[in-house]
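Suppose a colleague, Dr. K., hands you the sequence of a protein chain of 500 amino acids and asks what its three-dimensional shape might be. Before reaching for any lab equipment, you can write down a predicted structure in token form. Begin with the sequence itself:
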Amino acid sequence: MAMAGLARRKGYAVVLASRSSFSLTKWRGFASGSDENDVVVIGGGPGGYVAAIKASQLGLKTTCIEKRGALGGTCLNVGCIPSKALLHSSHMYHEAKHSFANHGVKLSSVEVDLQAMMAQKDKAVSNLTKGIEGLFKKNKVNYVKGYGKFVSPSEVAVDTIDGGNTVVKGKHIIIATGSDVKSLPGVTIDEKKIVSSTGALALTEIPKRLIVIGAGYIGLEMGSVWGRLGSVITVVEFAADIVPSMDAEVRKQFQRSLEKQGMKFKLKTKVVGVDTSGDGVKLTVEPAAGGEQTTLEADVVLVSAGRTPFTAGLGLDKIGVETDKIGRILVNERFATNVSGVYAIGDVIPGPMLAHKAEEDGVACVEFIAGKVGHVDYDKVPGVVYTTPEVASVGKTEEQVKALGVEYRVGKFPFLANSRAKAIDNAEGLVKILAEKDTDKILGVHIMAPNAGELIHEAAIALQYDASSEDIARVCHAHPTMSEAVKEAAMATYDKPIHI
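The predicted structure, expressed as tokens, is then:
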């Protein structure tokens, strides 16, 4: 049950757990923080720092607590940003080695300077984290560096990174602590031979053989980085498909594209043993349904089997915050937990584990706190796999639409018929649009293309405003652009395309 109050007497804290019971807890003697805040945010990742800035912009006195000592969370420090830096750098190398000659650019030799590549990545991360600190100063957000944990629903004890401690008080406290790497039974991550995505972003040499456990967004992106740089990539996936959330038709084309790049897949396969006693790693695998075991060998194994909410050490049990069976914090439509004054956003609550979703959560949450109205529609959050080609989607897959029993139409347009794609000799992929048959309302859009992550936002806006495929088709698109393929797919959905 949530705490009803907290009182101090003679060095003790009286924690009132209910009307009929209480317990005495020795007070640790923390240095007291500043006056009470309107909002305290625990976690400085995309959800947390955006919530803190927005709260301050709305006139609320705000403090953000971050244990890492660098803002931006997993995404900026060891996730989205450094991975995109390496994806871009490795793509440039791959293009120079394999494609430049087709465009009349001839090089006598091309080589990888991995140290310089990593330095460029680290510089990008450093500049961006410092940039967020600058935004905190600009918006007058108080920043406390340390590990926060609840001592009451309105107080957070912080062990600061400089060895001190303090208590930060707030009328409204937002939990924005993100997620952590999901471990696999019997597989110990040492960030040397067996690495998480964090270790995969900091390898000091290019492995000859890399095994990726998990064929989701992160595994395929990191596999692409090291595959372009020369590693032989094998992806082991328990499920029958890669990226199970992806539209099946697009997924099949995507997998074929990755296989053409040299990526090997072992689907419906589970890892049952790991041996790191030698120079490399030996994985024992078997069919997911059971069967004969085989051994795979690699220099490095990347564990990319998903992520799990990070709430360890927050003291949620102490104040009575409810979670579900997989550790996600339960909230209502206002992002409020069952404990008055305590909220949660981002990866620690149900919904897509995506940085941009967390940002929207943060804005909506503080808008509610400020007496305004906020809203996030999780059915309209775009997702992107930043490989080459990229795959982006928003809305429902064809399989989901079928399961709903909705009559629908499908329009598709290949980039092989797009003039810009042909001109730059990069015409792999397609645009696929699903629309309700009777109303033409767009239900989902799926794009596989070099810049799918940019193209998808036209579709995201369309879904947000319940647009029809004809609405997109009748918008004038500049020529020649890749976005014309979106227009043509829309034309194919409600009528007929022009260029195919």
